[in-house]
Amino acid sequence: MTRGSLGIAAIVLAAGCSSRTAPLHKLLTPDATGLPMIARTLRAITASRANPVIVVLGHRAAEIRSAASTDMPAQNAPRFITAPDHACGLSQTLAAGIHAAGTYPAVAGALVCLGDMPLIGTALIDRMIDAFLTSPDHPGVLPVHDGRRGNPVLWSRSLFPTLMHLTGDQGARPLIRRHEPDMLRVTAGPEITADFDTPARLADFARCFTDG
């Protein structure tokens, strides 16, 4: 981000305990090339226009950070933080990331990404950023496929205070319901709803990215 310009931060939520795939942790699971899921997710995000990239850790933080750093390019390397209250729910992990993003004065908004959505590509991220920076008076940007919204979600800085005061384990869903009519929409593919949070889906992920 150049001095005096506005930019968009990316917040990658990677603090969960991955209970649905226990004893395996989904973010540590390798794809067909051996790259851990969290590193695969970050590869697309760090290649985008998002800056800074903030990874919020919690459960098994040291292992997730090590896996996330696998084959990490030096350019746009992420900043790692730990959510002290991550065990209290997704909202606390999100709040920690939003707080960190808010310390950058030139950040006009934050793209909230899930660590277990490695199919999200750089092109979609950049189109969402472009859409918001073209019309920054909107509360944010939603990706939509066949009429269904998904992740990631981009939020305007004006909503950072509200995002930091959410509670529970449902993240920003109540805020989406409140502001959805006024949010920008970007057409996307089915990857915006494709996560890997069951043993069967982890087996699918292990066969992904055979071309590297």
Automatic annotation (TrEMBL):
<feature type="domain" description="MobA-like NTP transferase">
    <location>
        <begin position="10"/>
        <end position="180"/>
    </location>
</feature>
<keyword id="KW-0460">Magnesium</keyword>
<dbReference type="InterPro" id="IPR029044">
    <property type="entry name" value="Nucleotide-diphossugar_trans"/>
</dbReference>
<dbReference type="GO" id="GO:0016779">
    <property type="term" value="F:nucleotidyltransferase activity"/>
</dbReference>
<dbReference type="Pfam" id="PF12804">
    <property type="entry name" value="NTP_transf_3"/>
</dbReference>
<dbReference type="InterPro" id="IPR025877">
    <property type="entry name" value="MobA-like_NTP_Trfase"/>
</dbReference>
<protein>
    <recommendedName>
        <fullName>MobA-like NTP transferase domain-containing protein</fullName>
    </recommendedName>
</protein>
